[in-house]
Please model this.
Amino acid sequence: MLEELKREVYELHLELPKNRLVAWTSGNISGRDPSTGLVVIKPSGIRYAHLTPESMVVLKTDGTIVEGTFKPSADTATHLYVYRHRPNVMGIVHTHSPYATAFAAVGKPIPACLTSMADVFGGAVPIGDYCKIGGEEIGAEILRSIGGCPAIIMKNHGVFCVADTPEHALRAAIMVEEVAKTVSIALTLGDVIPLPAGELERQHQFYLTEYGQR
Model:
């Protein structure tokens, strides 16, 4: 079932190590089928090179496994909590990408100082409080602290990105790491220069309505 979505989620997982967003078996991606509401997610603890579309796990948002022979990701409860409370979210990505996770280690948001941040995030990438792994607490904190941003850095943990498709959530995860790297380097040179609030909004709206092919 959901063969197309399982293949999409599988293929997007291959982008995580390719973009150096994960190490070993860490990280995960899920996608929600808009017709059935079912969720496809990575199995727990399986190396990326060994994943297949068939190894993806299909669940209801209450956690009931509908299809799959493997145990789902350890972060499944987080994903499902977000899906239950954000009907517009159709894809979630979680990574421990090094530069972004460095901000998690010091408990600081990534300041809005680059036009690329205005494009994708519309402002700073927020920081969420530490929550224990494995339950719904992370999901609740994501919703409490993420605001209108598609990405959040969870203190002492890593990055979560939410979007209207799994691919767009992955794009946000890649961009979080890119801007985190640039800002980390910039902070070794001095204080970063914030973008004016009006310019953040203007640039973000331009990106949403004018950028790319329409």
User: Anything to note?
Assistant: The longest helix spans residues 166-189. The two ends are 32 Å apart (CA to CA). The longest strand covers residues 158-163.
